[in-house]
Amino acid sequence: MKPTKGMTLLEVIVALAVFSIAAVAVTKSLGEQMANMPILEQRTLAQWVASNQMVEARLTSEFPDIGQKEGRVELAGKEWYWRQNVVKTTDDKFRQIRISVSDDERYTRIQAQLSSYVHQK
Q: What is the DSSP code string of 24-51?
């Protein structure tokens, strides 16, 4: 008897089952990534706002006063609320600056936080 070339029906069914399981897993993974895109966009924009506020705080020629300042800024067509806390450190010539950014005035959802130190000139 001549050996047959090709696959049996059982082999084809198993191959299709393996392929369908892999396709479902890839589709589910892509769906989850797409669902997370708005969250990642929010966090990225909030981080940019925090970075911009930190640059402003560090570029001022005056040594920052201890305390809290708040403000709002528009970026990418959205209002962002930032809070700057200046904290005394153990060395009087240094201050810590903490920036928190939220998409609401009450700061119930902090989207980004950034911290840095400045030196008295």
A: HHHHHHHHHHHHHHHHHHHHHHHHHHHH
Number of domains making up the chain? 1
Would the pLDDT of 2 be above 70? no
Name the token pair of 85. Answer: 């806390």
What is the pLDDT at residue 1? 61
| Terminal CA-CA length for the chain | 95
pLDDT, tens digit (0-9, with 9 covering 90-100), for 39-97: 999 999 999 999 999 999 999 889 999 999 999 999 999 999 999 999 999 999 999 99
Asked, for residue 4, whether it belongs to a domain, the answer is: no
Listed in sequence order, the residues at least 6 apart from 54 whose beta carbon sits closer than 8 Å to its beta carbon are: 97, 99, 114, 116
Question: Torsions phi, psi of 72, nearest 5?
Answer: -140, 155
Look up the pTM and report it: 0.74
Q: Which domain holds residue 111?
A: 9-119
Q: Which two tokens stand for residue 58?
A: 């560090």
On whether residue 3 sits in a domain, the answer given is no
46, burial (CB in 10 Å: exposed 0-12, middle 13-18, buried 19+): buried
